[in-house]
Design goal:
- The chain is mainly α.
- It has one domain.
- The protein is globular, with a radius of gyration of 17 Å.
Length: about 200
């Protein structure tokens, strides 16, 4: 395949991923349910954790599923153009969720979409994330810390699985995920981060 054509496929994969990733399911579902704009609730985040603050567990679950599946869909669709295109589409989907053009580039923190991208790229890496997340959550009851530790382990897992190029791309996702969790990191260091199941 000529380099020019290959670059067009990669660009198309990036755009496809971004458009799918930028679908704000949290905003859409809460508005459909008559709850107004989720950005005016709790932390103002568009993700499932903040949707849960509306008291609607079903909507939160739907948001979680939607945010994950858009990442998986982007990867699987672009995989028809090759592994590199699938990887680039995953990056696009993650960027779309974090910085959706429809919401003036103010999106979510990306954990669900990160998992969805991993499911599409390498299910073993997704399993590694899930196991570590559950382990840290059980030990500490900090959801944010669980996501941070689990995400950091994923590039290592991909490298050990013989996927160095994919691991390099995921390092970028992890860096962005940690950046979006900066407030959580500050609260963790200060000892003021809320724990799973904690009220108030």
């Amino acid at each position: 395949m000529p380099a020019e054509v290959n670059m067009l496929y990669l660009l198309g994969a990036l755009i496809l991923g971004y458009l799918l990733g930028s679908i704000p399911f949290g905003v859409i579902f809460t508005r459909m349910a008559g709850l107004g704009d989720i950005r005016n609730v709790g932390s103002g985040n568009i993700g499932a954790t903040n949707v849960l603050r509306t008291g609607r567990k079903g909507l939160a679950a739907a948001t979680l599923l939607g945010d994950a599946l858009k990442g998986t869909a982007a990867v699987l669709i672009a995989a028809q153009w090759g592994e590199h295109a699938a990887t680039i589409a995953g990056l696009g989907a993650f960027l779309g969720h974090l910085y959706p053009v429809w919401l003036k580039f103010k999106g979510g923190k990306g954990v669900a979409t990160f998992i969805g991208v991993l499911i599409g790229l390498n299910w073993i890496a997704a399993l590694v994330f899930a196991v570590i997340w559950l382990g840290v959550a059980f030990a500490t009851r900090y959801s944010s810390l669980s996501a941070l530790v689990a995400s950091a382990a994923v590039p290592i897992a991909l490298w050990l699985l013989g996927q160095p190029a994919m691991a390099a791309m995921v390092v970028m996702l992890v860096a962005l995920l940690w950046w979006k969790h900066s407030p959580n990191i500050s609260r963790l260091l200060a000892g003021t981060e809320g724990k799973i199941g904690q009220k108030g």
